[in-house]
Amino acid sequence: MSPRHVSVVALPDGTVSTLFGIFDVMNASTVLHPSPDSSAGRLPFRTDIVGEAAGPLRMASGITVDVQRSIDEIDATDIIIVPSIVVRPEGWKTGRHPRLVDWLRRMHDRGATICSACSGIFLLAETQLFDGRDATVHFGYARTFCDTYPTITVHPDRVLVISGARDELVTSGASTTWHDLVLYLIARYAGATVAQDVARSFALQWHQDGLAPYMIFDGRVDHGDSEIQSAQQWVSTHFAVANPVEQMIKRSKLAERTFKRRFVSATGLTPIAYVQRLRIEDAKRRLERTDESVDEISWRVGYEDAAFFRRLFRRTTGLAPGAYRKRFRIPAFARS
Q1: Which of 289, 231, 309 is nearest to 265 (CA)?
Q2: From CA 208, how far away is CA 330, in angstroms rounded?
C-alpha cells in the first residue's frame, strides 16, 4: 500500500514550532531510529512542507523555512494540515491568500482530509467549507474568530473537533493540541497501536481533560455599556465580598431587572456566573502559587461552603482543585 501524502502548509504568518513539530511526528520513520519491534518508524505517510511557492519562506518568528513543494505542483493530496498562525491584535485580514484558498477547496473536492492546528482554522475558514459546522480554535483567539467568521460555531474548550460529511474536517485547539491532532490522524490511518507507539517515542500526551483547565477568564469589556463596565471594574477587585451581585446593583442605581438584563447582554454571562468565574480564576492562581489549603482558598475567594466551591471549581475547569494544583503548580526546583 502506497503511503498517504501529507501536505503541511507554510505561511508567512505561521509559527515554526508547530510546523516542524507536525512535520517531524508525521515523518517519524525518518526522524526516529526505532527498535525492531516498534511501529513508530513505519508510518504510512509521506510528508511535505508546501506553500504558494517553493523555496525559502520567512515565517512569523523571523525564521526562514524551506518550502519543499509549491501548491501548483500538487494535483492531489490525502491530508492537509495548516499549522498555527499568528493573529495580530488588529485581527485576521482575509483575502490575502486566494490561490491557497482555491487550492484547499480543490483538494477537498478531490477527497483530502483538511486539518488545522490551533489558529490555522483562520485560513481554512476562508474556504467556506466550515460554514454551518463546528470547529475549535485557540481560546485566546476565539472572540476574534467569532467576529470574523460568525457562521462557524467554535468550541475553544475542546481539544479536537471532527466534522464534515465524511469526517474530513479536523480542527485542534490551543497550541500543543497539535499533539492530539497528529496522534488522531495516525490512529485513524495506521491504527491505535501505532499511535500509542509514536506517543511513547515522542513523549506526547493526549489532552484528555480538554482545554478548560488552561483557559483564563477575561470578561468582555468592549460592549459599550458604561454602567456595566463600571460594575465589572468594581467587582474585579471585590468579587470575594458577601453578596457581590446585590452590591453591584445598588452601586449602579439601575433597577435589578434592568441591571441583570443589560449585564447579560453586555458580557454574555449572568452577574452571578460572572462573579463565579472571577472567583475561580483567583482560586486557580492561589492553587498554582501558594500552599494554602483548598478550604482556605475557598474562604478567601468568597465561599464559606468548601464543598460547593469544590463542585463549582470542577464544573468550571474540568479538574478537582487538588488535581489542578498538581498539574499547574510550578515545580519546587523552578521557584525562586
Answers
A1: 231
A2: 21
Contact 100, 107 (CB under 8 A): no
CB 290 within 8 A of CB 262: no
**CA-to-CA dists, residue 100 to 107, 108, 150, 315, 328, angstroms:** 10, 12, 22, 41, 39
Domains of the chain by residue range: 4-213, 226-334
Q: Which of 101, 76, 145, 286 is nearest to 295 (CA)?
A: 286
Does residue 162 contact residue 170 with C-beta atoms inside 8 Å? yes
CATH number of the structural domain 4-213 = 3.40.50.880
Distance CA 172, CA 83 (A): 10
Per DSSP bridges, beta strands 113-117 and 134-135 are unpaired
Residue 119 and residue 85 in contact, taking contact as beta carbons nearer than 8 Å: yes
Q: What DSSP state is assigned to residue 319? A: S
CATH of 226-334, picked from 2.60.120.430, 3.30.70.360, 1.10.10.60, 3.60.15.10, is 1.10.10.60
Interval 216-250: pLDDT, tens: 998 989 899 999 999 999 999 999 999 999 999 99
Q: With beta carbons less than 8 A apart as the criterion, state whether 321 and 287 touch.
A: yes
CA 158, CA 146: separation in Å to the nearest integer? Answer: 15
Q: How far apart are CA 279 and CA 302, in angstroms?
A: 7
Q: Which long-range contacts (CB under 8 A, 24 or more apart) does 157-163 make?
A: 157/210, 157/211, 157/212, 157/215, 158/210, 158/211, 159/206, 159/207, 159/210, 159/211, 160/136, 160/184, 161/134, 161/135, 161/136, 163/130, 163/133, 163/134, 163/135
Cβ proximity of 78 and 6 under 8 Å:
yes
Q: What is the pTM of this model?
A: 0.86
Span 244-302, pLDDT tens digits:
999 999 999 899 999 999 999 999 999 999 999 999 999 999 999 999 999 999 999 99
